[in-house]
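Lab notebook, bench 4. The sequencing result for the construct came back, and we need a structural model before the next group meeting so we can plan mutations. Quick request posted to the team channel:

Model the 3D structure of this chain.
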Amino acid sequence: IRCWSNIPFITVPLSRAHGKSFAHRSELKHAKRIVVKLGSAVVTRGDECGLALGRLASIVEQVSMLQNQGREMMIVTSGAVAFGKQRLRHEILLSQSVRQALHSGQSQLKDMAIPVLEARACAAAGQSGLMALYEAMFTQYSICAAQILVTNLDFHDEQKRRNLNGTLHELLRMNIVPIINTNDAVVPPPEPNSDLQGVNVISVKDNDSLAARLAVEMKTDLLIVLSDVEGLFDSPPGSDDAKLIDIFYPGDQQSVTFGTKSRVGMGGMEAKVKAALWALQGGTSVVIANGTHPKISGHVITDIVEGKKVGTFFSEVKPAGPTVEQQAEMARAGGRTLAALQPEQRAEIIYRLADLLTDQREEILLANKKDLEEAENKGRLALPLLKRLSLSTSKLNSLAIGLRQIAASSQDSVGRVIRRTRIAKDLDLEQVTVPIGVLLVIFESRPDCLPQVSALAIASGNGLLLKGGKEAAHSNQILHHLTQEALSIHGVRDAVQLVNTREEVEDLCRLDKLIDLIIPRGSSQLVRNIQKAAKGIPVMGHSEGICHVYVDMDASVEKVTRIIRDSKCEYPAACNALETLLIHRDLLRTPLFDQIIDMLRVEQVKIHAGPKFASYLTFSPSEVKSLRTEYGDLECCIEVVDSVQEAVEHIHKYGSSHTDVIITENEKTAEFFLQHVDSACVFWNASTRFSDGYRFGLGAEVGISTSRIHARGPVGIEGLLTTKWLLRGDNHVVSDFSEHGSMKYLHESLPLPQRNAS
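Done. Here's the predicted structure in token form:
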């Protein structure tokens, strides 16, 4: 805990030797000394006359938060000219109206022309007001701010430089936020020059160059440049092919076309890039981002410091492999080529992958052993996750069998005609299956997921991005290598990509222009995080697996304990494991009920009593905290219901629409349950554990979906396809079908082509 003026605040452990910029975004959280440069477009309103107060207040809040974490924050701000222009216009209008009223003696005023205001006069009038505003805002967070006005001469005079440096260091030492601006009241108009060419030479001709000079002079860790665009684009923003550059490296300038400068201010994007590269060369990391967008401006600074993918990050370290954006583009191109192959060729790739899993089992198991040893040494994984991480010969054999099932069933998946309609004479319409596009599958601790999902993507002709957990890095690497080896037999190696960069899952979920569907495979927390982070990309999956088994009054004694034991105890960490056991009231205090309780005790299942069940007991187990709990372990809740209708109502209220089971010998009761329970999977006299793509005969699954749109339940090949419409005509136009036209609609259903029987 640090204290200043009796105000305690938590400090972040921040320390590093200055001299080299951060290589990756993830390292920005270690930045201690930070300069935030606010461009004119960020600080001023759209009418360029006056300040954007709400935006400025949000920026001050973020800077204060970082300052109170123990960081040393500095602000280079524009806005004095705009604030002064507002004040001077008001004064001129007031003065003119008074003079006109006195001169004419009339209360009605004519239109008054406002003279062009000189920028230096505006700056002189606005600087004090701007600083007063900053002081008032920072005071809300118990932070003191101090104003420093500089000119280019202050950096060229050695004594002034030392004075400035000493002043800034002293302010930072006292936990004061310096607010720095060029002294626009006295600064001469900018002249073209050849500055920004080297570390030792830079002219302060705008706030971009001032921020860069100051950042290097003060050995700053990070410079954040906020403007009115998202960052640096490879061509002028707004043009058709403009793409935001995530990471910019020195030497990439030739790949960028600069547009016009900002609507206000002295510098355009070219000036910002030159200043950023100069600062980077001096050992300061730089991010250029949008400080005006209403959806992100409230957290843009803190997001950057947390390492999130915001704006353009300037780095001197160029990665060896492609960026994730390039990987997504490669996956899309590869996926389109894959979809154009013959079905037999796609099946051949999957058969080859199945063979490789068994042929190369020694290498796979050796890589998996490394992952297991590292996980055990670090002690980060719980036992259930270690079991998921582990591969074995039997697991690989089962995988190979599942892949061969997928290959055999995929012969007519892509391009299958599912509807044919004759619209009119010689005008035929077809609806055919096509791949979704590019899939992003994010999975934890389960390397066996990689070949399963890859095979389903290959069978359905989709491009695939895979993001596995770092705990399975060695296993994923070799499995991906084998997948690409199989793809190479038909020249589509790039269709499946493994993301190995330091991309955060949240950043991947923002790639809405490159990814068409996200499929999370992991904990309910992972799924919820992805559903929350996904920006405009559909997410297929389920956040919880709260599965119920209802034991009806007509249940068979022989079936009940077998089904309950298998549903709960066979693999309690699975999403299709039993979590809540519903028992008909008439079964309480019967031999069947005693058998159920005894079996659960033998299996060491911890029982939680639902409110109604607890009311029937003198000494009850611990009462459940919530009936909406996914235990994922040898625990379950028992609750009592009066009828099958009440069981259905309970499931709808507390369930997650995953898998629900009824055990009964009464067919009418069973059919009522099957028809009325609104879940992805509803079973009669069968374990919840059957809710699985392999057990359904799908070969494998990309996951289980509880969504009500597109795919539901275990998702195999069919769930990774969508459709498109093909219309074949002969000089047809809509006007021919008007009231007085020559043609009539037929809308005849046509027979479908025969499916491949093999």
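The domain at 548-701 is CATH 3.40.309.10 (Aldehyde Dehydrogenase; Chain A, domain 2).
Will bring this to the meeting.
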